[in-house]
Amino acid sequence: MTKDDVISNLLRQMEEKITITKSALAETNESASGDETKSEGKYDTRAIEAAYLAEAQAGQLALAEESLAIFKRFEPRNFEMTEPVGPGALVEVDQEGEICFYLLAPTGGGLMTDYLGCDVTVITPDSRLYQELNEKKMGAELESPALTITGVE
Predict the structure, then answer these.
(1) pLDDT tens digit sequence for 116-137
(2) Which stretches of 1-127 are DSSP H helices?
(3) What is d(CA 30, CA 96) in angstroms, rounded to the nearest whole number?
(4) Where are the domains of the chain?
């Protein structure tokens, strides 16, 4: 498995999330404007509530599609083990005796996948951990969270 495989898995997750969000939005739009949501009285607000929900879901869908477009253009370079961590790096860390990986990406923060039997978590420039790892080299230790960089790809 390679870093490209990790990115492909993450892209697939993002596409699945968009598909699910589109489906939910379609259902919510139907609830907001369908025949079955005709008001049954002045206190029946189901259609109004569904319309607000549809508006929020449409906003989430737009953000997810934008994030996917950015991630599709993301082409991280390969890092040598002696190089400092930078954008696009897949960083292996020993976190309290457990090996895990972080992918420094422009978007998709919080997404997770598997790499070599370990968890990979996407972190973005907005996260403190991204900022802490950036420019560090293999062997560097962080205090919060307590981890040691054991590899950079």
Answers:
(1) 999 999 999 999 999 999 999 9
(2) 3-33, 46-73
(3) 49
(4) 3-73, 90-152
